[in-house]
Amino acid sequence: MKPFKLAVSLAVVLSALPFAALAEEEEASSPFTWSVDLVSDYVFRGASQTDESPALQAGLTWSADSGFYVGAWGSNVDFGSGGPDVELDTFIGYNTDLGDDFVNLDVMLNRYNYLGGDGSDLAYNELYTVLTFAGSFALTGTYSNDVWASGEDGWYFGAAKTFELPSDYAIEVNAGKSVFDSSVARDYLDWGVSVSKAWGNFSAKLGYVGTDSDGEANFGELGDDRVVLTLSYGM
């Protein structure tokens, strides 16, 4: 049996904060946003991080009016015997609209921390840049000078498109490519398609994700195509 390890940590929320309006005056909203997620499998760029087992994930972000934000996100992980039990990502970033607000820019420095076992040897940093157009099409580029704590360079290039549907349904499609120095791993493609439904602060998403043959060569069965169910609650 694969153990289900409980991880209570903090989450990446890159959206703008909501505001509350009173009858005669506006009241500033909380600078904090948070989320809690239960997923059937924690999949990162096409590969399972929990040995194809469920994960509990949670997170918190503090955002300033200027666009700067800090926070953390966490999940249980399973990398095999002697490996870490928890991934805890800590991050700082800046989010702003450009021009006529049609384009949103988000720049974030993320630190992947791993707790338990030999996790301290796996920590590394990654710089993210995300451009979102009309709130529904996003382009992502990342860079790490120590990807997977290998001491080598790694890049990720991704694109995602969300199609809003009636009754708070949505369909999202995404694809990305991981590029490494040759000594780290094979360059590979990942992809996904999902349908989601929101009920206020609660949402559910059913996705189908996978990698190409190079991803399967890197990760074995952990890079195989799979169905992932996500249940989320956040504010």
* Record field, number of beta strands: 16
CATH class: Mainly Beta
Q: Tell me the domain tally.
A: 1
The portion of residues assigned to helices is under 10%
Net shape: globular
Radius of gyration: 18 Å
CATH architecture: Beta Barrel
CATH topology: Porin
Low-confidence stretches: 1-27
CATH superfamily: monomeric porin ompg
What is the element string, with H for helices and E for strands? EEEEEEEEEEEEEEEHE
Describe the sheet with the most strands.
12 strands, antiparallel, barrel
Straight-line distance between termini: 34 Å
How much of the polypeptide forms β-strand, as a percent range?
over 45%
Helix count, per DSSP? 1
**Structural class, please?**
mainly beta
Q: What is the spatial order of strands in the main beta sheet? A: 3-6-7-8-9-10-11-12-13-14-15-16
Overall residue-averaged pLDDT value: 89
Features:
16 strands, two-stranded antiparallel sheet, mainly beta, 235 residues, Porin, 12-stranded antiparallel barrel, 1 helix, disordered N terminus, 3% helix, single chain, globular
Structural summary, described in words:
There is one protein chain. Helix content is 3%, strand content 57%. By secondary structure, it is an all-beta fold. The protein has a single domain (20-234), classed as Porin (Beta Barrel). The strands form three sheets. The chain has a twelve-stranded antiparallel beta barrel with strand order 3-6-7-8-9-10-11-12-13-14-15-16. The radius of gyration is 18 Å and the shape is globular.
